[in-house]
Amino acid sequence: MSVSDPVADMLTKIRNASRAKFEKVDIVPSKLKLEIIKILKNEGFVKNFKKVTQDDESVIRVFLKYDDQENPIIHGIQSVSTPGRRVYTGYKDIPRVLNGFGTVIVSTSTGVTTGKKATVGKVGGEIICKVW
After folding, report:
1. SS3 for 84?
2. Is the full-model pTM beyond 0.85?
3. CB under 8 Å to 109, separation ≥6 — which residues?
4. What DSSP state is assigned to residue 72?
5. Are the C-beta atoms of 79 and 7 separated by less than 8 Å?
6. Which of 83, 120, 121, 129 shows its CA 20 to 30 Å from the CA of 91?
7. 2 pLDDT more than 90
8. Is residue 127 a contact partner of residue 94, using CB atoms and an 8 Å limit?
């Protein structure tokens, strides 16, 4: 079965796995998904990730992060842009998530980055997702 929005599918897999308290989740790789996962790791939302090859198929294995009471670190993850409705913004209008406690992931002309780095670099772009 083909997926019409692979990024939203990845975000849903991560959201469902963290709510089910899974240790890890496997995701079909792409360059954009890998960059998003790198940002999630750098911002502290996931523990780690690695590329794994199983039966001549490569996947990105994402290890989820939990606190001391086994509550997921990712409280919410929401896709903003979809294939039918792209959401673009300038660097002055990049939204803040939970007054700065969350992260906005933006695809800019300089690459995929967080909203804070895009604002500092004065580049706008497509808002991919919000994580808190």
Report:
1. coil
2. yes
3. 123, 125
4. B
5. yes
6. 83
7. no
8. yes
